[in-house]
Amino acid sequence: MIITLTALIMDISNAFNGSVHDFKIFKEQTINRALKKLLKLMKQIIVYGDSAYEALEKIFPKWICQINEKGKRNHPLSDEQKLKNRIKTKVRILVEHVISRIKKYRCCLERVRNMTATQQSRYWNIVAGLCNLRRAEELQILHVFGYAY
């Protein structure tokens, strides 16, 4: 899932089995054409991720990757590293809040049966659109979506 700093959903991946690792999905997922154009216009891309995305810097060297550092045995994190991790986490929590807004529509609550991956992805995209409309209303930017106040 790709979101803006205002917590609007820019892109959401297709539905995958729960046993597939997030980073594998990220590597294999094709970014839609509109998002590719947007990424080309941006001069700087900053990505916040958890420790599962450590290889991101190698795959996309132009991106600025903000990934939490991990302490190792007999080498705990310094106070400066802990402070940096806290700052990164404050930005990453935005994604968690967006996920919680999506979960309010109960799309993660139960196992979905008799629904193809395409139908499930369509369902998630509809829910993402509803979440964006609700967030746009909170930010008072509904005119961006073509709605008048």
Biggest β-sheet strands, sense, barrel: 2 strands, antiparallel
Which blocks of ≥5 consecutive residues have pLDDT under 50?
Answer: none
Overall pLDDT confidence: 80
Strand content: 5-15%
- Residue share in helix: 40-55%
Query: How many domains is the backbone divided into?
Result: 1
Instruction: Spell the H/E element sequence.
Output: EEHHEHEHH
Compute the gyration radius: what is it?
Answer: 17 Å
SS content category: mainly alpha
- Through-space gap between termini: 29 Å
Number of DSSP strand runs? 4
Rough shape?
globular
Q: How do the strands of the widest beta sheet line up side by side?
A: 1-2
Topology:
Elements: E1 2-3, E2 9-11, H1 22-28, H2 33-41, E3 46-49, H3 56-59, E4 64-67, H4 79-103, H5 117-139
Parallel strand pairs: 3-4
Antiparallel strand pairs: 1-2
Which key terms come to mind for this protein?
5 helices; 149 residues; globular; mainly alpha; two-stranded antiparallel sheet; 46% helix; two-stranded parallel ribbon
Structure description:
The protein starts with a strand and ends in a 10-residue tail after the last helix. Strands 1-2 form a two-stranded antiparallel ribbon. A two-stranded parallel ribbon has the order 3-4. The longest helix is centred in the middle third of the chain and has 25 residues, at 79-103. It is mainly alpha-helical and 149 residues long. The model has no long low-confidence stretch (mean pLDDT 80). Helices cover 46% and strands 9% of the residues. It has helices at residues 22-28, 33-41, 56-59, 79-103, 117-139; strands at residues 2-3, 9-11, 46-49, 64-67.
